[in-house]
Design brief:
The radius of gyration is 24 Å and the shape is globular. Mean pLDDT is 75; it is low at 151-155. α1 (2-20) runs antiparallel to α2, α2 packs antiparallel against α8 (159-201) and α4 (74-89) crosses α6 (107-114). It contains nine helices and no strands. Helix content is 82%, strand content 0%. The chain is mainly α. It has one domain.
């Protein structure tokens, strides 16, 4: 049943997962490739195209609507400003490596587009970065299965447990990041509200025109 499901939808799910985020689903796909449910070569290829297409889209969105996108959430704005600072100092290095920095997958391509980074250069270096990321993470997950087999013997008896653990870990990381972002946004909103309240209670200077009329 699992094999048939992966045969029908596995690579499509991998493409969608790497298009929007990537790490967890690529690790799962690499392990499933080791178990024989998927082909590791196709896993790497599909992960490359998913990641490449997603980051190209965010880059062009950043070129056209970068400030509007980052302004949607205070957390994105702060991360975008930090990303812009990194890009201005070492642009090519960040284009090649941002996929390996947890939490910057979406914000960094938007910031790169906003920074005015050349489209053709991004097209090339983003492709190189996506290829290295897909190959490195996919191979690491594949060999993780081999290590487990060396430790546990017959991995098939434990594969559902391993898959479940990987899913729980991925979900846990996503929830942790979501809650952290929510806390940061609440803190920023509270600070903004306090600043606005302090501004409202500050004594106001008389209007210059009103003073002039009273003279």
């Amino acid at each position: 049943m699992l094999q048939q499901f992966l045969h029908d939808f596995g690579y499509f799910a991998l493409f969608l997962g790497t298009f929007f985020e990537g790490e967890t689903i690529l690790v799962l796909a690499g392990f499933l490739a080791f178990r024989g449910y998927m082909d590791i070569s196709w896993v790497v290829v599909v992960a490359f195209f998913g990641s490449y297409a997603g980051d190209q889209l965010w880059y062009f969105m950043g070129r056209r609507h970068g400030r509007a996108i980052l302004a949607r959430k205070p957390r994105w704005q702060a991360m975008g400003d930090k990303a812009l600072d990194h890009i201005r100092r070492h642009p090519d290095i960040w284009v090649l490596s941002f996929r390996f920095v947890y939490g910057l997958r979406t914000v960094m391509p938007v910031a790169i587009g906003l920074s005015g980074y050349p489209p053709r250069r991004y097209l090339l270096l983003n492709g190189i970065g996506a290829a290295v990321w897909a190959l490195a993470l996919g191979a690491a997950a594949y060999h993780f299965g081999a290590i487990l087999e060396g430790l546990l013997g017959n991995v098939k008896k434990y594969e559902l447990w391993v898959l479940g653990t990987l899913l729980v870990l991925g979900l846990g990381l996503w929830i942790r990041r979501y809650l952290r972002n929510q806390r940061a946004e609440r803190a920023e909103r509270a600070a903004a509200a306090l600043a606005a309240q302090a501004e409202d209670t500050r004594p106001k200077r008389p209007d210059a025109d009103a003073e002039h009329g009273q003279r």
